[in-house]
Write the structure tokens for this entry.
Amino acid sequence: MKDVDTLVAEAFAATPREWFLPTDKRGQAGYDGPLAIGHDQTNSQPRTVADMLELLDVRPGMSVLDVGAGSGWTTALLAHLVGPTGTVRGIERVEALVEFGRHNLERAGRPWARIQPATPGVLGDPEHAPYERILVSAEAEALPSELVEQLADGATMVIPVAGEMHRVVRARQDVIVTRHGHYRFVPLLR
Ligand SMILES: C[S@@+](CC[C@H](N)C(=O)[O-])C[C@H]1O[C@@H](n2cnc3c(N)ncnc32)[C@H](O)[C@@H]1O
């Protein structure tokens, strides 16, 4: 079995960042920092995305929720990791970015992934829960119990909370939280 670093590196190689950037930003795709995608939002820093995906440890066939789909890049990376036997549901709260992300994702040709608008006042997508993995690319002030409840038994979520990356594993009645360094993100809004 391949290790997670190799799987993530393969997903990056198959999913060029420039496909997920506005035309005027494509020349900066190699920059290891966040890039503006409009609407006060960003396509995240590549090193940060890689760190999060390595923590998430996504495997073929999994069902994944991607909260804060933005440019569609993480949705497409996750789609590569789950492969055609898996599913990825990207959620985005800015309507114009839902369209931008969908358009970009289409180019990647991974129809087992989709991007849908967030329902106002609802975090994630409880209707289609539980998920085996949840990636959250916007920072929460505190760990959102609504998202923990959308994890299947044994499932993992990676989410920035109050400046620190958190990995959350749901194990029956227990929720095991570990912290993995400091990162800056746009806020997770409702
Ligand atoms: C760092 S940006 C985009 C990251 C994205 N994964 C990418 O690769 O481009 C985070 C995104 O989270 C979105 N967002 C913030 N709160 C949200 C919520 N409650 N539900 C869905 N999306 C949300 C923002 O609109 C923004 O597009």
